[in-house]
Design a protein that fits this description.
This protein has one domain (about 1-225). The chain is built from eight helices and no strands. It has helices spanning about 1-20, 30-35, 45-65, 70-75, 85-95, 100-145, 150-190, 195-225. Helix 3 (about 45-65) packs antiparallel against helix 4 (about 70-75).
Length: about 230
């Protein structure tokens, strides 16, 4: 009975987590090429909230239909991935895969999925950030020549600032996911599991995240040098 109460508490917690208001970036001024791209949902709090609500409802339903508590833990957790938190995710995978090698393979597949998601965000961001760099270059030249249109320049800078904030928020969430993967790998290693292959995949994820961060930092540096009265 205690296990049943525990899993109900977990499921309700997931539902409540999903209902919490998002503190994400205001996307009103963000370039539509970012917010309307196929990668826009990756590493977004709203996507996690939807997943949490579905997982919580599914877990409660599993119990009400007479499912075993252990299986219902997996039911409530699987699908949201490591973004739901390393501990929940680790427990769900251990419940799903008793075989260590199969469990590590499952982790690797999910890390690879995250890596592909980072690549997708990076690709959609590249054209926007390249355009922003070109705009900043023109503005710098106009400022030197005293030919800048102040209103247009301010509009351009507002969107560039919004783009930077939007992508920085994505980057922050990516780093949280990577941190969870590192934590999960360390816990499995402490249990005697061979995580060398998993660590290689996490390293690839890190490289992809670092690539996006480099792009964002470049635009941020160029933007900080532009001052319009």
């Amino acid at each position: 009975m205690n296990k049943i109460m525990l899993i109900i508490t977990l499921c309700v917690s997931l539902i409540l987590t999903g209902c919490q208001s998002s503190s994400g970036v205001n996307t009103k001024d963000v370039d539509p090429a970012l917010t309307k791209s196929n990668s826009a949902q990756f590493f977004s709090k709203s996507a996690w909230q939807s997943c949490a609500i579905g997982a919580g409802v599914g877990g409660v339903g599993c119990l009400l239909l007479g499912g075993k508590p252990g299986a219902c833990v997996a039911s409530a957790a699987v699908g949201c991935g490591v973004m739901m938190g390393a501990n929940y995710y680790l427990d769900s995978k251990r419940a799903e895969y008793a075989n260590e090698e199969m469990r590590v393979d499952a982790y690797i597949q999910d890390v690879q999925k995250n890596t592909l998601e980072v690549q997708a965000v990076t690709q959609s961001a590249k054209s926007v950030l390249d355009k922003n760099l070109a705009t900043l270059k023109v503005l710098n030249q106009q400022i030197k020549n005293s030919s800048v249109n102040t209103k247009q320049a301010q509009n351009d800078l507002t969107q560039i600032d919004a783009n930077i904030a939007y992508l920085t928020d994505k980057l922050s969430r990516m780093k949280e996911v990577e941190k969870d993967w590192v934590s999960l790998s360390a816990k499995e290693k402490q249990s005697g599991v061979n995580v060398s292959k998993l660590d290689k995949e996490i390293n690839q994820l890190n490289k992809q995240i670092a690539g996006l961060e480099k792009q964002i930092n470049l635009v941020t540096q160029q933007r900080s040098a532009v001052r319009v009265g």
